[in-house]
Amino acid sequence: MSLDGLSINLATIRAQWNVREAVEACRRHGIGAVDPWRDQVAAIGLDTCVRAIKDNGMRVTGYCRGGMFPAADAAGRQAAIDDNYRAIDEAVALGAECLVIVAGGLPSGSRDIAAARQMVAEGLAAILPYARSANMPLAIEPLHPMTAADRCVVNTLAQALDLCDQLGDGVGVTIDTYHVWWDPDLANQIARAGEDGRILAHHICDWLVPTRDLVTDRGMMGDGVIDLSGFRRMIEAAGFFGPQEVEIFSAENWWKRPGDEVLRTCIARYEACCR
Amino acid sequence: MSLDGLSINLATIRAQWNVREAVEACRRHGIGAVDPWRDQVAAIGLDTCVRAIKDNGMRVTGYCRGGMFPAADAAGRQAAIDDNYRAIDEAVALGAECLVIVAGGLPSGSRDIAAARQMVAEGLAAILPYARSANMPLAIEPLHPMTAADRCVVNTLAQALDLCDQLGDGVGVTIDTYHVWWDPDLANQIARAGEDGRILAHHICDWLVPTRDLVTDRGMMGDGVIDLSGFRRMIEAAGFFGPQEVEIFSAENWWKRPGDEVLRTCIARYEACCR
Q1: What ipTM does the predicted assembly reach?
Q2: Would B154 be classed as within a structural domain?
Protein backbone atom coordinates (compact mmCIF):
# COMPACT_ATOMS: atom_id res chain seq x y z
CA MET A 1 0.00 0.00 0.00
CA SER A 2 1.18 3.52 -0.67
CA LEU A 3 2.48 5.50 2.28
CA ASP A 4 2.00 8.83 0.51
CA GLY A 5 -0.57 9.77 3.13
CA LEU A 6 1.79 9.30 6.06
CA SER A 7 4.23 11.76 7.60
CA ILE A 8 6.34 11.36 10.72
CA ASN A 9 6.67 14.24 13.12
CA LEU A 10 10.21 13.75 14.32
CA ALA A 11 9.27 14.27 17.95
CA THR A 12 7.96 10.72 17.68
CA ILE A 13 11.50 9.36 17.29
CA ARG A 14 13.44 12.15 18.95
CA ALA A 15 14.94 9.91 21.62
CA GLN A 16 16.30 7.46 19.05
CA TRP A 17 17.72 9.52 16.19
CA ASN A 18 18.90 12.95 15.11
CA VAL A 19 17.19 14.56 12.12
CA ARG A 20 19.55 13.08 9.54
CA GLU A 21 19.28 9.59 10.98
CA ALA A 22 15.53 9.93 11.34
CA VAL A 23 15.07 11.05 7.74
CA GLU A 24 17.20 8.14 6.50
CA ALA A 25 15.21 5.74 8.65
CA CYS A 26 11.92 7.06 7.29
CA ARG A 27 13.23 6.60 3.77
CA ARG A 28 14.24 3.00 4.54
CA HIS A 29 10.69 2.33 5.75
CA GLY A 30 9.13 3.88 2.63
CA ILE A 31 7.93 7.02 4.38
CA GLY A 32 8.31 10.16 2.31
CA ALA A 33 7.38 13.01 4.64
CA VAL A 34 8.55 14.37 7.98
CA ASP A 35 8.14 17.33 10.33
CA PRO A 36 11.23 18.23 12.35
CA TRP A 37 11.44 20.36 15.50
CA ARG A 38 13.59 23.42 15.90
CA ASP A 39 15.71 22.00 18.72
CA GLN A 40 16.34 18.89 16.63
CA VAL A 41 17.42 21.03 13.70
CA ALA A 42 19.65 23.17 15.91
CA ALA A 43 21.30 20.06 17.34
CA ILE A 44 22.95 19.08 14.04
CA GLY A 45 22.65 22.37 12.17
CA LEU A 46 20.19 23.70 9.64
CA ASP A 47 22.42 23.04 6.62
CA THR A 48 22.93 19.40 7.54
CA CYS A 49 19.16 18.99 7.93
CA VAL A 50 18.40 20.69 4.63
CA ARG A 51 20.88 18.38 2.90
CA ALA A 52 19.48 15.25 4.57
CA ILE A 53 15.98 16.20 3.48
CA LYS A 54 17.01 16.93 -0.10
CA ASP A 55 19.23 13.85 -0.39
CA ASN A 56 16.33 11.67 0.73
CA GLY A 57 13.69 13.44 -1.33
CA MET A 58 11.63 14.13 1.75
CA ARG A 59 8.48 16.18 1.83
CA VAL A 60 8.35 18.44 4.92
CA THR A 61 4.73 18.64 6.02
CA GLY A 62 5.45 21.21 8.69
CA TYR A 63 8.09 22.70 10.95
CA CYS A 64 7.63 22.69 14.71
CA ARG A 65 7.33 25.29 15.95
CA GLY A 66 6.77 28.98 16.09
CA GLY A 67 4.62 30.84 18.57
CA MET A 68 5.20 31.07 22.33
CA PHE A 69 4.20 34.74 22.20
CA PRO A 70 3.05 35.69 25.72
CA ALA A 71 5.69 37.19 27.99
CA ALA A 72 5.65 39.27 31.15
CA ASP A 73 7.05 42.40 29.49
CA ALA A 74 7.38 44.08 26.11
CA ALA A 75 11.01 43.04 25.71
CA GLY A 76 10.03 39.41 26.21
CA ARG A 77 7.25 39.68 23.68
CA GLN A 78 9.58 41.30 21.15
CA ALA A 79 12.15 38.56 21.71
CA ALA A 80 9.44 36.00 20.94
CA ILE A 81 8.52 37.84 17.75
CA ASP A 82 12.16 38.00 16.67
CA ASP A 83 12.54 34.30 17.32
CA ASN A 84 9.52 33.64 15.11
CA TYR A 85 11.20 35.49 12.23
CA ARG A 86 14.10 33.04 12.55
CA ALA A 87 11.66 30.12 12.68
CA ILE A 88 10.11 31.31 9.42
CA ASP A 89 13.55 31.53 7.80
CA GLU A 90 14.38 28.01 8.90
CA ALA A 91 11.03 26.69 7.69
CA VAL A 92 11.71 28.23 4.26
CA ALA A 93 15.18 26.71 4.15
CA LEU A 94 13.78 23.29 4.97
CA GLY A 95 11.08 23.59 2.33
CA ALA A 96 8.37 23.15 4.99
CA GLU A 97 4.76 23.42 3.88
CA CYS A 98 3.83 25.37 6.99
CA LEU A 99 5.21 26.65 10.26
CA VAL A 100 3.25 25.08 13.12
CA ILE A 101 2.30 27.69 15.72
CA VAL A 102 1.89 26.81 19.39
CA ALA A 103 0.63 29.95 21.03
CA GLY A 104 2.36 29.79 24.39
CA GLY A 105 0.94 29.78 27.93
CA LEU A 106 0.45 32.35 30.65
CA PRO A 107 3.40 34.61 31.34
CA SER A 108 5.15 33.72 34.58
CA GLY A 109 3.08 34.91 37.53
CA SER A 110 0.06 35.86 35.45
CA ARG A 111 -3.51 34.72 36.02
CA ASP A 112 -4.87 36.73 33.08
CA ILE A 113 -5.56 34.28 30.27
CA ALA A 114 -7.47 36.90 28.25
CA ALA A 115 -4.38 39.10 28.22
CA ALA A 116 -2.21 36.15 27.16
CA ARG A 117 -4.61 35.44 24.31
CA GLN A 118 -4.36 39.05 23.22
CA MET A 119 -0.56 38.76 23.19
CA VAL A 120 -0.88 35.75 20.89
CA ALA A 121 -3.09 37.66 18.48
CA GLU A 122 -0.66 40.58 18.50
CA GLY A 123 2.38 38.33 18.05
CA LEU A 124 0.80 36.61 15.08
CA ALA A 125 -0.18 39.94 13.55
CA ALA A 126 3.41 41.11 13.96
CA ILE A 127 5.00 38.18 12.13
CA LEU A 128 2.32 37.65 9.52
CA PRO A 129 3.59 40.17 6.92
CA TYR A 130 7.00 38.51 7.01
CA ALA A 131 5.46 35.04 6.79
CA ARG A 132 3.37 36.14 3.82
CA SER A 133 6.35 37.61 2.02
CA ALA A 134 8.17 34.31 2.57
CA ASN A 135 5.15 32.30 1.39
CA MET A 136 5.23 30.42 4.67
CA PRO A 137 1.73 29.63 5.98
CA LEU A 138 1.32 29.81 9.74
CA ALA A 139 -0.57 26.77 11.04
CA ILE A 140 -2.09 27.67 14.40
CA GLU A 141 -2.48 24.52 16.46
CA PRO A 142 -5.12 24.53 19.18
CA LEU A 143 -3.71 22.51 22.05
CA HIS A 144 -5.67 20.54 24.62
CA PRO A 145 -7.16 22.67 27.41
CA MET A 146 -4.91 20.88 29.91
CA THR A 147 -2.02 22.83 28.35
CA ALA A 148 -3.63 26.25 28.78
CA ALA A 149 -1.57 27.35 31.75
CA ASP A 150 1.94 26.56 30.65
CA ARG A 151 1.98 25.84 26.93
CA CYS A 152 -0.86 27.08 24.80
CA VAL A 153 -3.76 29.45 25.45
CA VAL A 154 -5.38 28.57 22.11
CA ASN A 155 -7.47 25.62 23.18
CA THR A 156 -10.27 24.98 20.71
CA LEU A 157 -10.53 24.80 16.95
CA ALA A 158 -13.23 27.49 17.09
CA GLN A 159 -10.84 29.83 18.88
CA ALA A 160 -8.05 29.14 16.37
CA LEU A 161 -10.42 29.77 13.46
CA ASP A 162 -11.62 33.01 15.05
CA LEU A 163 -7.96 34.06 15.14
CA CYS A 164 -7.63 33.15 11.46
CA ASP A 165 -10.70 35.23 10.62
CA GLN A 166 -9.18 38.15 12.47
CA LEU A 167 -5.77 37.80 10.81
CA GLY A 168 -6.75 37.13 7.20
CA ASP A 169 -4.64 35.40 4.57
CA GLY A 170 -1.54 33.41 5.36
CA VAL A 171 -2.78 31.64 8.47
CA GLY A 172 -4.62 28.38 8.99
CA VAL A 173 -4.81 25.58 11.49
CA THR A 174 -3.11 22.36 12.44
CA ILE A 175 -5.73 19.86 13.55
CA ASP A 176 -4.28 17.31 15.95
CA THR A 177 -6.60 14.49 16.98
CA TYR A 178 -5.11 14.38 20.47
CA HIS A 179 -5.90 17.98 21.23
CA VAL A 180 -9.41 18.31 19.84
CA TRP A 181 -11.03 14.86 19.77
CA TRP A 182 -13.14 15.64 22.87
CA ASP A 183 -14.67 18.87 21.49
CA PRO A 184 -18.49 18.74 21.38
CA ASP A 185 -18.33 21.22 18.51
CA LEU A 186 -15.64 19.34 16.56
CA ALA A 187 -17.62 18.34 13.48
CA ASN A 188 -18.92 21.87 12.94
CA GLN A 189 -15.51 23.43 13.38
CA ILE A 190 -13.72 21.01 11.06
CA ALA A 191 -16.34 21.78 8.41
CA ARG A 192 -15.88 25.50 9.03
CA ALA A 193 -12.10 25.14 8.72
CA GLY A 194 -12.58 23.40 5.40
CA GLU A 195 -14.99 26.00 4.02
CA ASP A 196 -12.47 28.70 4.78
CA GLY A 197 -9.57 26.69 3.34
CA ARG A 198 -7.80 26.84 6.68
CA ILE A 199 -6.69 23.24 7.21
CA LEU A 200 -2.90 23.14 6.76
CA ALA A 201 -1.92 20.01 8.65
CA HIS A 202 -3.46 16.94 10.27
CA HIS A 203 -1.57 15.43 13.19
CA ILE A 204 -2.50 12.08 14.67
CA CYS A 205 -1.97 10.04 17.79
CA ASP A 206 -4.29 8.47 20.35
CA TRP A 207 -5.65 9.28 23.81
CA LEU A 208 -4.73 6.58 26.32
CA VAL A 209 -6.87 5.47 29.24
CA PRO A 210 -5.49 6.11 31.74
CA THR A 211 -3.28 8.99 30.67
CA ARG A 212 -0.42 9.21 33.15
CA ASP A 213 1.25 12.47 32.18
CA LEU A 214 -0.14 15.71 30.75
CA VAL A 215 2.65 16.03 28.16
CA THR A 216 4.49 12.80 27.43
CA ASP A 217 1.91 10.02 27.57
CA ARG A 218 0.35 10.13 24.13
CA GLY A 219 -0.70 6.89 22.55
CA MET A 220 0.08 5.07 19.32
CA MET A 221 -2.89 5.04 16.96
CA GLY A 222 -5.21 2.22 17.95
CA ASP A 223 -4.08 2.04 21.56
CA GLY A 224 -6.57 4.63 22.81
CA VAL A 225 -10.11 5.88 22.44
CA ILE A 226 -10.02 8.24 19.47
CA ASP A 227 -12.02 7.23 16.39
CA LEU A 228 -9.15 8.06 14.05
CA SER A 229 -10.71 6.84 10.81
CA GLY A 230 -13.93 8.72 11.58
CA PHE A 231 -11.85 11.80 12.36
CA ARG A 232 -10.03 11.47 9.04
CA ARG A 233 -13.34 11.20 7.19
CA MET A 234 -14.34 14.58 8.64
CA ILE A 235 -11.00 16.07 7.60
CA GLU A 236 -11.31 14.78 4.04
CA ALA A 237 -14.96 15.82 3.83
CA ALA A 238 -13.67 19.30 4.67
CA GLY A 239 -11.36 19.13 1.66
CA PHE A 240 -7.98 18.32 3.20
CA PHE A 241 -6.18 15.34 1.70
CA GLY A 242 -2.63 16.01 2.88
CA PRO A 243 -0.66 13.47 4.88
CA GLN A 244 -1.58 12.40 8.39
CA GLU A 245 1.42 13.27 10.52
CA VAL A 246 2.16 11.00 13.47
CA GLU A 247 3.19 12.99 16.53
CA ILE A 248 3.65 10.93 19.69
CA PHE A 249 5.30 12.17 22.88
CA SER A 250 5.81 9.00 24.88
CA ALA A 251 8.51 9.13 27.52
CA GLU A 252 7.74 5.77 29.09
CA ASN A 253 6.92 3.72 26.02
CA TRP A 254 7.69 4.66 22.41
CA TRP A 255 10.69 6.85 23.16
CA LYS A 256 12.22 3.81 24.87
CA ARG A 257 11.78 1.42 21.96
CA PRO A 258 14.04 0.96 18.93
CA GLY A 259 13.26 3.56 16.28
CA ASP A 260 12.71 0.95 13.59
CA GLU A 261 10.06 -0.72 15.75
CA VAL A 262 8.36 2.65 16.27
CA LEU A 263 8.26 3.35 12.52
CA ARG A 264 7.04 -0.14 11.69
CA THR A 265 4.26 0.30 14.24
CA CYS A 266 3.35 3.75 12.92
CA ILE A 267 2.95 2.29 9.44
CA ALA A 268 0.92 -0.71 10.59
CA ARG A 269 -1.39 1.37 12.73
CA TYR A 270 -1.78 4.05 10.09
CA GLU A 271 -2.93 1.36 7.69
CA ALA A 272 -5.19 -0.34 10.24
CA CYS A 273 -6.77 2.61 12.06
CA CYS A 274 -6.45 5.85 10.17
CA ARG A 275 -7.83 5.44 6.67
CA MET B 1 -15.54 37.80 58.59
CA SER B 2 -18.60 35.73 57.82
CA LEU B 3 -18.03 32.34 56.31
CA ASP B 4 -21.59 32.11 54.99
CA GLY B 5 -20.22 32.12 51.46
CA LEU B 6 -18.02 29.06 52.01
CA SER B 7 -18.86 25.39 51.68
CA ILE B 8 -16.57 22.39 51.90
CA ASN B 9 -16.94 19.56 49.47
CA LEU B 10 -16.04 16.63 51.67
CA ALA B 11 -13.79 15.09 49.03
CA THR B 12 -11.36 17.79 50.16
CA ILE B 13 -10.94 16.11 53.55
CA ARG B 14 -11.91 12.57 52.63
CA ALA B 15 -8.60 11.07 53.65
CA GLN B 16 -8.75 12.59 57.13
CA TRP B 17 -12.34 12.21 58.36
CA ASN B 18 -15.61 10.40 57.81
CA VAL B 19 -18.72 12.49 57.14
CA ARG B 20 -19.68 12.87 60.79
CA GLU B 21 -16.17 13.88 61.83
CA ALA B 22 -15.86 16.19 58.84
CA VAL B 23 -19.14 17.93 59.59
CA GLU B 24 -18.13 18.43 63.22
CA ALA B 25 -14.76 19.77 62.13
CA CYS B 26 -16.37 22.24 59.73
CA ARG B 27 -18.63 23.41 62.53
CA ARG B 28 -15.61 23.91 64.84
CA HIS B 29 -14.02 26.08 62.16
CA GLY B 30 -17.17 28.16 61.69
CA ILE B 31 -18.07 26.66 58.33
CA GLY B 32 -21.80 26.07 57.87
CA ALA B 33 -22.08 24.19 54.58
CA VAL B 34 -20.79 20.94 53.12
CA ASP B 35 -21.21 18.63 50.12
CA PRO B 36 -20.68 14.93 50.88
CA TRP B 37 -19.99 12.13 48.40
CA ARG B 38 -22.06 8.99 48.07
CA ASP B 39 -19.25 6.62 49.01
CA GLN B 40 -18.55 8.70 52.10
CA VAL B 41 -22.21 8.54 53.07
CA ALA B 42 -22.35 4.79 52.45
CA ALA B 43 -19.29 4.27 54.63
CA ILE B 44 -21.03 5.34 57.84
CA GLY B 45 -24.65 5.05 56.72
CA LEU B 46 -27.17 7.56 55.46
CA ASP B 47 -29.01 7.91 58.79
CA THR B 48 -25.83 8.70 60.68
CA CYS B 49 -24.95 11.35 58.09
CA VAL B 50 -28.42 12.88 58.17
CA ARG B 51 -28.21 13.11 61.96
CA ALA B 52 -24.70 14.63 61.89
CA ILE B 53 -25.85 17.26 59.42
CA LYS B 54 -28.97 18.13 61.42
CA ASP B 55 -27.18 18.12 64.77
CA ASN B 56 -24.61 20.56 63.41
CA GLY B 57 -27.09 22.73 61.55
CA MET B 58 -25.24 22.23 58.30
CA ARG B 59 -26.38 23.49 54.95
CA VAL B 60 -25.81 20.90 52.20
CA THR B 61 -24.89 22.77 49.05
CA GLY B 62 -24.90 19.66 46.92
CA TYR B 63 -24.57 15.90 46.91
CA CYS B 64 -21.88 14.20 44.82
CA ARG B 65 -22.84 12.58 42.63
CA GLY B 66 -25.31 11.19 40.19
CA GLY B 67 -24.70 10.54 36.52
CA MET B 68 -22.29 7.98 35.04
CA PHE B 69 -24.89 7.10 32.43
CA PRO B 70 -23.00 5.57 29.47
CA ALA B 71 -22.69 1.80 29.46
CA ALA B 72 -21.95 -0.82 26.83
CA ASP B 73 -25.44 -2.34 26.88
CA ALA B 74 -29.04 -1.51 27.76
CA ALA B 75 -28.86 -3.39 31.06
CA GLY B 76 -25.88 -1.33 32.13
CA ARG B 77 -27.61 1.89 31.19
CA GLN B 78 -30.72 0.88 33.13
CA ALA B 79 -28.60 -0.01 36.15
CA ALA B 80 -27.10 3.49 36.01
CA ILE B 81 -30.56 5.04 35.84
CA ASP B 82 -31.72 2.96 38.82
CA ASP B 83 -28.69 4.02 40.77
CA ASN B 84 -29.52 7.65 40.05
CA TYR B 85 -32.98 7.18 41.57
CA ARG B 86 -31.26 6.07 44.77
CA ALA B 87 -28.90 9.06 44.60
CA ILE B 88 -31.91 11.38 44.37
CA ASP B 89 -33.48 9.71 47.43
CA GLU B 90 -30.27 10.12 49.40
CA ALA B 91 -29.92 13.74 48.33
CA VAL B 92 -33.45 14.41 49.55
CA ALA B 93 -32.75 12.70 52.88
CA LEU B 94 -29.64 14.81 53.35
CA GLY B 95 -31.49 18.01 52.51
CA ALA B 96 -29.10 18.70 49.64
CA GLU B 97 -29.78 21.73 47.47
CA CYS B 98 -28.90 19.83 44.30
CA LEU B 99 -27.61 16.51 43.06
CA VAL B 100 -24.35 17.06 41.21
CA ILE B 101 -24.30 15.16 37.92
CA VAL B 102 -21.06 13.86 36.41
CA ALA B 103 -22.03 12.44 33.06
CA GLY B 104 -19.71 9.46 32.80
CA GLY B 105 -17.10 8.57 30.17
CA LEU B 106 -16.97 6.27 27.17
CA PRO B 107 -18.33 2.78 27.70
CA SER B 108 -15.57 0.21 27.90
CA GLY B 109 -14.18 -0.47 24.44
CA SER B 110 -16.07 2.38 22.78
CA ARG B 111 -14.58 5.11 20.60
CA ASP B 112 -17.94 6.75 19.93
CA ILE B 113 -18.13 9.87 22.08
CA ALA B 114 -21.24 11.13 20.27
CA ALA B 115 -23.07 7.94 21.27
CA ALA B 116 -21.91 8.32 24.87
CA ARG B 117 -23.21 11.88 24.90
CA GLN B 118 -26.54 10.66 23.62
CA MET B 119 -26.66 8.11 26.46
CA VAL B 120 -26.11 10.95 28.92
CA ALA B 121 -28.99 12.94 27.48
CA GLU B 122 -31.23 9.87 27.59
CA GLY B 123 -30.21 9.00 31.15
CA LEU B 124 -30.94 12.50 32.35
CA ALA B 125 -34.29 12.52 30.58
CA ALA B 126 -35.13 9.20 32.26
CA ILE B 127 -34.46 10.40 35.82
CA LEU B 128 -35.70 13.95 35.44
CA PRO B 129 -39.40 13.30 36.18
CA TYR B 130 -38.45 11.60 39.43
CA ALA B 131 -36.03 14.39 40.33
CA ARG B 132 -38.70 16.97 39.65
CA SER B 133 -41.25 15.16 41.78
CA ALA B 134 -38.68 15.08 44.58
CA ASN B 135 -37.84 18.77 44.11
CA MET B 136 -34.21 17.82 43.65
CA PRO B 137 -32.45 19.94 41.00
CA LEU B 138 -29.90 18.11 38.86
CA ALA B 139 -26.69 20.13 38.59
CA ILE B 140 -24.86 18.99 35.47
CA GLU B 141 -21.14 19.58 35.94
CA PRO B 142 -19.04 19.98 32.82
CA LEU B 143 -15.70 18.35 33.57
CA HIS B 144 -12.34 19.24 32.06
CA PRO B 145 -11.78 17.81 28.57
CA MET B 146 -8.94 15.70 29.96
CA THR B 147 -11.65 13.60 31.66
CA ALA B 148 -13.65 12.97 28.48
CA ALA B 149 -12.50 9.38 27.95
CA ASP B 150 -13.00 7.87 31.36
CA ARG B 151 -15.10 10.17 33.49
CA CYS B 152 -17.25 12.75 31.81
CA VAL B 153 -18.23 13.39 28.20
CA VAL B 154 -19.81 16.74 29.10
CA ASN B 155 -16.81 19.00 28.73
CA THR B 156 -17.86 22.59 28.26
CA LEU B 157 -20.34 24.89 29.92
CA ALA B 158 -21.94 25.50 26.52
CA GLN B 159 -22.54 21.79 26.09
CA ALA B 160 -24.03 21.48 29.59
CA LEU B 161 -26.33 24.44 28.94
CA ASP B 162 -27.40 22.96 25.61
CA LEU B 163 -28.39 19.84 27.56
CA CYS B 164 -30.34 22.01 30.00
CA ASP B 165 -32.15 23.69 27.11
CA GLN B 166 -33.05 20.30 25.75
CA LEU B 167 -34.25 18.92 29.11
CA GLY B 168 -36.21 21.89 30.45
CA ASP B 169 -37.01 22.59 34.09
CA GLY B 170 -35.30 20.87 36.97
CA VAL B 171 -31.77 20.87 35.60
CA GLY B 172 -28.95 23.38 35.85
CA VAL B 173 -25.18 23.44 36.05
CA THR B 174 -22.38 23.17 38.54
CA ILE B 175 -19.63 25.57 37.54
CA ASP B 176 -16.24 24.41 38.83
CA THR B 177 -13.34 26.78 38.24
CA TYR B 178 -10.94 23.88 37.73
CA HIS B 179 -12.89 22.39 34.86
CA VAL B 180 -13.81 25.49 32.87
CA TRP B 181 -11.28 28.25 33.62
CA TRP B 182 -9.49 27.70 30.30
CA ASP B 183 -12.62 28.07 28.12
CA PRO B 184 -12.32 30.89 25.56
CA ASP B 185 -16.10 31.22 25.67
CA LEU B 186 -16.35 31.21 29.48
CA ALA B 187 -17.64 34.73 30.07
CA ASN B 188 -20.41 34.34 27.50
CA GLN B 189 -21.48 30.97 28.83
CA ILE B 190 -21.54 32.06 32.48
CA ALA B 191 -23.74 35.00 31.47
CA ARG B 192 -25.97 32.64 29.49
CA ALA B 193 -26.25 30.29 32.48
CA GLY B 194 -27.30 33.21 34.63
CA GLU B 195 -29.91 34.49 32.19
CA ASP B 196 -31.50 31.07 32.13
CA GLY B 197 -31.33 30.70 35.93
CA ARG B 198 -29.24 27.57 35.52
CA ILE B 199 -26.39 28.13 38.00
CA LEU B 200 -26.94 25.74 40.90
CA ALA B 201 -23.47 25.45 42.41
CA HIS B 202 -20.05 27.06 42.24
CA HIS B 203 -17.07 24.84 43.01
CA ILE B 204 -13.59 26.21 43.49
CA CYS B 205 -9.99 25.08 43.51
CA ASP B 206 -6.90 26.05 41.55
CA TRP B 207 -4.94 24.77 38.54
CA LEU B 208 -1.35 24.00 39.50
CA VAL B 209 1.67 24.44 37.22
CA PRO B 210 2.84 21.82 36.67
CA THR B 211 -0.12 19.52 37.17
CA ARG B 212 1.26 16.05 37.90
CA ASP B 213 -1.88 13.93 37.75
CA LEU B 214 -5.06 14.21 35.70
CA VAL B 215 -7.32 13.49 38.68
CA THR B 216 -5.71 14.05 42.06
CA ASP B 217 -3.43 17.06 41.69
CA ARG B 218 -5.81 19.97 42.13
CA GLY B 219 -4.52 23.04 43.88
CA MET B 220 -5.57 25.04 46.92
CA MET B 221 -6.96 28.43 45.95
CA GLY B 222 -4.10 30.84 45.40
CA ASP B 223 -1.52 28.17 44.60
CA GLY B 224 -2.28 28.09 40.88
CA VAL B 225 -3.13 30.23 37.89
CA ILE B 226 -6.90 30.70 38.06
CA ASP B 227 -8.17 34.24 38.64
CA LEU B 228 -10.65 33.09 41.30
CA SER B 229 -11.94 36.49 42.37
CA GLY B 230 -12.46 37.50 38.74
CA PHE B 231 -14.25 34.21 38.17
CA ARG B 232 -16.50 34.87 41.17
CA ARG B 233 -17.33 38.32 39.85
CA MET B 234 -18.62 36.73 36.65
CA ILE B 235 -20.69 34.24 38.67
CA GLU B 236 -22.24 36.98 40.81
CA ALA B 237 -22.85 39.20 37.79
CA ALA B 238 -24.82 36.26 36.41
CA GLY B 239 -26.99 36.31 39.52
CA PHE B 240 -25.61 33.46 41.61
CA PHE B 241 -24.69 34.34 45.18
CA GLY B 242 -24.64 30.88 46.76
CA PRO B 243 -21.59 29.54 48.56
CA GLN B 244 -18.31 28.80 46.90
CA GLU B 245 -17.65 25.12 47.52
CA VAL B 246 -14.05 24.03 47.90
CA GLU B 247 -13.39 20.75 46.12
CA ILE B 248 -9.75 19.66 46.09
CA PHE B 249 -8.52 16.22 45.09
CA SER B 250 -4.92 16.21 46.22
CA ALA B 251 -3.37 12.80 46.82
CA GLU B 252 0.16 14.04 47.35
CA ASN B 253 -0.48 17.20 49.32
CA TRP B 254 -3.73 18.18 51.04
CA TRP B 255 -4.99 14.65 51.62
CA LYS B 256 -1.75 14.02 53.53
CA ARG B 257 -2.09 16.99 55.88
CA PRO B 258 -4.07 17.22 59.11
CA GLY B 259 -7.71 18.02 58.38
CA ASP B 260 -7.69 21.05 60.66
CA GLU B 261 -4.80 22.52 58.70
CA VAL B 262 -6.67 21.92 55.46
CA LEU B 263 -9.79 23.69 56.74
CA ARG B 264 -7.81 26.60 58.17
CA THR B 265 -6.10 26.99 54.80
CA CYS B 266 -9.39 26.78 52.89
CA ILE B 267 -10.77 29.60 55.03
CA ALA B 268 -7.69 31.78 54.72
CA ARG B 269 -7.46 31.32 50.95
CA TYR B 270 -11.18 31.81 50.47
CA GLU B 271 -10.87 35.14 52.25
CA ALA B 272 -7.70 36.14 50.40
CA CYS B 273 -8.37 34.94 46.85
CA CYS B 274 -12.02 34.27 46.20
CA ARG B 275 -14.06 37.33 47.08
Answers
A1: 0.97
A2: yes
pLDDT for position A12: 98
Asked if the structure places residue B69 within a domain, the reply is yes
A184 interaction partners in chain B (CB closer than 8 Å): 117, 155-156, 158-159
Condensed to tens digits (0 to 9), the pLDDT of residues A168-197 reads 999 999 999 999 999 999 999 999 999 999
> How many folded domains does chain B comprise?
1
The confidence band for B179, taking pLDDT boundaries of 50, 70 and 90, is very high
Give pLDDT < 50 ranges for chain A. Answer: none
Looking at residue B71, which CATH number applies to its domain? 3.20.20.150
Domain range for B94 is: 32-201+228-243
Q: What's the rounded Cα separation, in Å, for the pair A121 and B65?
A: 40
> Does the distance separating the beta carbons of B117 and A183 come in below 8 Å?
no
Whether the predicted pLDDT of B262 surpasses 90: yes
Contact B77, B123 (CB under 8 A): yes
Answer whether residue A248 is part of any domain: yes
Do A182 and B117 count as a contact with CB atoms less than 8 A apart? no
A225–B149 C-beta distance less than 8 A: yes
> Whole-model pTM?
0.97
Buried b (16+ CB within 10 A) or exposed e, B12-46: bbbebbbbbebbebbbebebbbbbbbbebbeeeee
